[in-house]
Amino acid sequence: MAAAKGTYVYCVIAAARRPRLARVPPGLPGTGRVRLLDVEPGLFMAVADAPLDRYGEAAIARGLGDLDWVSRAAVAHEAVIESFVGETAVLPMKLFTIFTGDQRAVAHVRAERARIAGVVRRVSNHQEWGVRVVLDRGRAAGAAKAKRAPRALAATRSGVAYLSAKKAQRDRTTALAARAREAVAALYDRLASRARESRRRTAAELPIEGGPLLLDAAFLVSRRRADSFQALTAREAKSLARHGYGVTLTGPWPPYTFVQE
Question: Over the stretch 170-228, which tens digit does the pLDDT of each residue have?
Fold first, then answer.
């Protein structure tokens, strides 16, 4: 007896023509080949058959405790979505979105037709770009110190001198933090001016390799402006690098951050 299967949904796609599947990756382990469902003219769903003993509600609940299993599924899920990034609009579905069958999946999307149409209008022919800024405190402090005129300091062991030195250190740290906030805010504003929408995620002082993460932002950029957006980011990165900031640009991605109204 064949195992019961559900319809796993990767994304909704708006396209003038039926998307091709030749270069679409396999998808989640154990699922069938990715295929398309027609929702209405110009709107499709990328789906696959999923055995419920592996991806049913109870199986997913058990699997959520296994980070490796979830990670593999997430990578496969996003790989399928990103294979459609060249279409007019791609609306990613959440990981582990599954219905009892094709009809239920299509009915769900049709019931959300008005909302989906609004999202498609917002993101059509746009892609998401991510920008992260990391501060190397050592390099930033060195750059700031280089700007100050050298002063001869008398060697002393007095308590007053010690307290003065500690205060000076705190003042330098405070000034460095202020400069970092100003630099990141200016960068975000300049990049946002080239995007249709932008979102700044909470990132202050999040510990990551290389230094604190000062900016983690997403920008919804028109395909026509993608080259100028990349060029601007590269110029800003080069300028900020002299002051101890590392700027990383990723993309283009489907509009993961911008599909929620």
Answer: 545 455 556 777 888 999 999 999 999 999 987 544 445 556 788 999 999 999 999 99
- Confidence at residue 77, expressed as pLDDT on a 0 to 100 scale: 97
- What tokens does 105 get? 């999946």
Rounded CA gap, 250 and 230, in Å?
A: 10
Phi, psi of 66 (to 5 degrees): -105, 100
List, in order of start, the domains of the chain with CATH numbers. 5-123 (no CATH), 126-258 (3.30.70)
C-alpha 24/C-alpha 256 separation (Å) is: 18
| Two tokens, residue 110 | 């049709």
- The total of other beta-carbon atoms located within 10 Å of residue 160's CB is 8
pLDDT digits 0-9 by tens, 123-166:
999 999 999 999 875 555 555 555 544 444 444 456 666 565 55
Contact partners, residue 42, CB within 8 Å, separation at least 6: 14, 15, 16
Residue whose token pair is 């280089």: 146
Q: CA-CA distance, 25 to 21, in Å (whole number)?
A: 9
Q: What are phi and psi of 173, to 5 degrees?
A: -65, -45
Q: What is the pTM of this model?
A: 0.78
